[in-house]
Every structure is written in C-alpha cells, then in structure tokens.
Amino acid sequence: MVDLIAAPDPHQLLPPVLACLPTAFASNLPPPALLDLVSPILRQRLQLITSTYTSSSENWLRLLCWDQEKGKRLKDVVEGGTYEPHPSSGEIEIGDVGSTKYKRLDQDTLRAQIVLPEWNLIAVYLWCAGSEGGGGWKLAELLPWDSDLERDPSWSHSIAAANDNSRDHTVSEAIRDPDAVEQPTVGEDDDDDYWAQYDKTPGRTPAQNSSPTPNGSAADRRTSHSDREYYAQYCKVQPVMDSHDLSEVPNQIGSSSVQGDILESIMRQQLGKKEEQGPMQRETQGMQTGVAENMPVNHPQPSPPLRATSGAVARLEEGAGQQSASEIGIRQHISTTMKSLYRLASSAGLEREEFNCIIQRELETNSILDD
C-alpha cells in the first residue's frame, strides 16, 4: 500500500475545474488548463475524442463521465448552473462540501469522492504518484449527483480504512469457499452425458450396451464379399509407369517399319556375300548406301508385299527395327547423360580439362574391367 498520501483539499482542487466547465458551450475542444487537472487516462479520452469533432455543436462535457447516460445529465446540470467568480477573490466559491470518502481498488489505485451539494455534482479524484512535485490528486470523473453513489458502503471515510477494506476483501477472495469457486463446473455432468451417447452408437465403441440396430445379416456378408471382389480388380490394372505390357505377345510379327536397304544389308550379313565384287558393282552399292543414309526418314514405310510373305524376312525386319531403335535410344541416353554431367561439373567449378580427365579415367577403368 502507498503511505503518506495527503487528503484532497476541495477548495484548491475544484475551483479551477468548475471555471473550465462553461467553456464547453463556446468551444468543442477542452481548454488546456483543464487537461492539466485531470488524470492521464481522462486526458487521453478528451484529446482523442475531441480531435474527431467536426461540428461546433458537439460538447465535451459528456466525456467527463464514463457512463453515457450520466454524461447527458452532466451537461444539463452544468448548463443550468451559474459559474461566476467572486468579486473580491476572483475565484468560484464551491460552498459547502460533503465528507470526503475513499476507495482503494488495488495496490496502486486510490480514489477519493467529493460531494458538492450546491452544484449537484460529485467529483471523483485519483491519486497519481507520477505527477509533478511527487504526487497529487487528479480528476478521474465528474458525475451528476447520485444518492446511490453517495451511500455506497464500499467507500470509506479515511484512507486507512480504505486500505483495510481492500486488504480484507483480498483475503476474503483468497480464502473463499472452494465450492463457490468450482460452482461453474457443475455442468460437467451434462458433458459426461453428452459423451456417453457415443457408447450407444452401433459398431463404434466397445461399450457393452446392446446396439439399437439389427445384427449383420447375409446381405451384409454378400456386400462385404462384393467389396473384396471390387478391390481385387486393382491387381489386374497395368501400372502407368510400367512400359512392359504382359498382355502383348512378344513373338507377334507386325508390319515392317525399316527401309529396304537396311534389310538388304542384314541379309548379306546373315547369308554371306561374295568376297569378290566388280569395281562397278561396289561403286554402285556405295552410291546407293550413301544416298540412303542421307535421306531423312519422315514416317514409317511398309515393306513391299512380296517380302512380307516370307516369315524369315519378316523376323529379320523386326529384329533390325528393334536393334536400330535400341541403338538410337542408347546413344541419346549417353549423350544426354554426358551433357548433364558436364553442366553439373561446371556448376561445381570444375575446369573442362579436369572433367575430361575424369571421363578418360572412367573409360580406362571400364576397358580394364572388360579385359
């Protein structure tokens, strides 16, 4: 608790506040003198809200109350009062003042209530420890007179009594009956009943309660059997990434897709060729072979009908086509792999000469393994 707090002096605190109240009907902004007399939180309230005012008819008196209805009543009370300074002193006389009451909300918050019967007002002050000069009382709220607030038993007639009441209230809250603290948990029985309903769900939990639905019948077993047959069909599905289809006949001979000159060269390798050929025949054959190699293959061409009638010729054509396609694929794969390896080596910072040495060393190793 905070000690050495002086009691508020109404004759010093209230006249400057009362002198600022009539200015609310002349300007929609509070005077700077009033901002120095109020608490920090009320000062922020006045500054922030009045900065949004766009009409001169808006009044800031209602902002001195945190309750909207009391704020409207405060405006009417101030409008009906007379705020004239005394001719000799130049200050507003507050007249008789009721007894000052105190209320401590927590360790750092102490409030004082001052009743002004002649003005029909109740001023609530807050002790601010960080004020200039060490500490002081600042206006926290200005209310219209309220009999219920004046007779509120939570307010004490001295600061010491307010401290004692706050301490007693804290202790009573700490040692309050545990049953009262746990009272909101009485509804747990309802939650238990809710979750217990899941035990009645058929086939979902191992509860011993009998299921309200009939037991499984032969129709259910037939349905289960049909489901197994349905999912068993997935075993017969050809995988998407599997290029080898078992449904295809491997020895089936299809139409030839190779050129006639390739077939002729393969037949010469299989059946043998005469070792001696005339110069003219070899020259003619070389010209035909060169022309055939330079001709681009745009699309597959069927073999002549006379050759398709021979089974041996068809098998040779098929073998030549498969061999040609395999060789082309292997060469492309090797070329692509070498390019990828070179790019990888370049990205890693290897020089071309070092890369060539690595490739040459691997080739030599492969030749040793072949031997």
UniProtKB/TrEMBL annotation:
Domain of life of the source: Eukaryota
Residue stretches of biased makeup (Basic and acidic residues): 165-179
Record protein name field: Uncharacterized protein
Location of the region described as Disordered in the Swiss-Prot/TrEMBL record: 160-225
Originating species: Endocarpon pusillum
Biased composition (Polar residues): 206-216
